[in-house]
Amino acid sequence: MIFIIAEHRTCKLQDITFQMLAKGRALADKTASALVAVVLEDGSQSYEHILSSYADSILKVRDKCLSNFNSEIYQEVLCGLISKYKPLLTLIGHTSYGIEMASSLAVDLGFTFVSDCVDLDVKNHRVYATRQIYGGKVNSLISLVGENCIATIRPNVFKGAEKEGLHGIIIESPFSIEKTTRRKRFIELATTPTGDLDITQADKIVSIGRGIKKEEDVKIIADMAESIGAVLACSRAIVDKGWLPVERQVGSSGRTVNAKLYIAIGISGASQHLAGMSSCETIVAVNEDPYAPILSIAHYAIIDDLYKVVPLLKDKLCSKRR
Amino acid sequence: MNVIVCVKQVLISTESLKLTGDGKIVEKGMSYDINEWDIYALEEAILIKEKYGGSVTVITIGPETVDKMLRGCLAKGADRAIRFWDPFVEGSDGFILAITLSEIIRLFEYDLILFGAQASDDGCAQIGPMVAQILAIPHATLVTKLELVNNIAKVRRELENGVDEIIEVDLPAAFAVQTGINRPRYAPLKGIMQAMKQVIPTLCLQDIEILGHPSGNFISRIQLERLYTPEIIRSALILDGTTDEATDKLLAVLSDKGLL
Fold this sequence. Notes:
With about 325 residues, chain A is of the alpha/beta class.
């Protein structure tokens, strides 16, 4: 059996769920076994009916206390289910939920664990995983020893599953959640402030990253952005330093933008950043590193020192204006 | 508040990261430093000590060459640093490292254990929750805000797409912190001078009770088959030439597309 743990938030199944269903289906076919989607929910939505057209069976646990993700409760429920069925492989998203829960769940179960996989395969009952290390500069192929494994899957690597028109069997799994005192309590979801600027609405964006050496230099790029009527945005590193506010951050933990023009300056392009801007129409990268991952999705690139390129670009733009 | 911070020294990957013919990372000429996320974990620990009193203990697993990193942590304000090393560590998977760390941590009194949310080398993001599970304490990851009131931590966690989650966690607990949670300080000169004189105790296998751990064995369940350089699919059209030529080309492209 191949298990996937469905992820949902604010009453919606997340994209990663369908990406896991796609990969899970391929692995289930290869091992001639069933694909089982597991969903923990509070009964307000009928996720199981959506999942049943993708998976052979749906294991559903319904309880009021499962309405919001809480790794402590989810782990307790999943530990019970997984140890009962003992799937060869359980897939969980390498998301804020998966990172919170998957590795401790694996320890709880005594299963072999691998995180943030960009590919998975099963050969002779052995699970193989491909991971990216050193920020995507090196790949590692690893094999997992053990009868049962848990793997987290990097989001947006696998294409979401197409509806298969299946009629998966829905099994409601009775599970009494022990009403002990919880050491971890969900309070609420909070949205980071948008501030006075919504970068998701911008047509043109000039975005800066780690290549910017000093806070004063942000001004140089801001001036250039202004000269083409673009909004200034950035990668996580700039927000972490406090040089720009969080509402300017592009990426999976920041905003997703769809600009006509995106100029990435000194941004190497970690997968989290690419997730937030890859659908922009025209992407230009200015980077010293000819191997920077951003070049895999940019349309145009200048491989050069940004401190030489940007001032020159700004001068030319200004003289053009005149 | 007694805070334990687990840190790791990593190879800093620059653009020149290369593999040898048989798939090993060429380490010659490369630099090592404390994992970026761990810098924030250490800062958070020092801030907590400054606010509530108590101590900061830094723990790492590594050979003698990591002592420099530990002195850097002491210089910033950690009270003590402990280094564990034993040959079995080499090639061990995350689970074995988590058991090892847990057994070291058991030697100390603690209210909080802090980790970086992930390491920049392998990016596993797994050790914090594993250690918490082994020590049977609650945990939270991707923490961007930590407030302590009456032995309860009010925690902000970063989810996706600009959405955060607010949770409460009873102490003792383990937290894996995200970059940006604070603004890490630089080590003051006085701290650097004092750290140079400090003794860094070293522990090895016989100092901890790892052998007695029920699920403890030294067979790594994660086995490396091979490392390889991924094929670079470079979609970008390189605008080449001198800086002057390249920028002209870019302006021409943007102008053609009506983007200026």
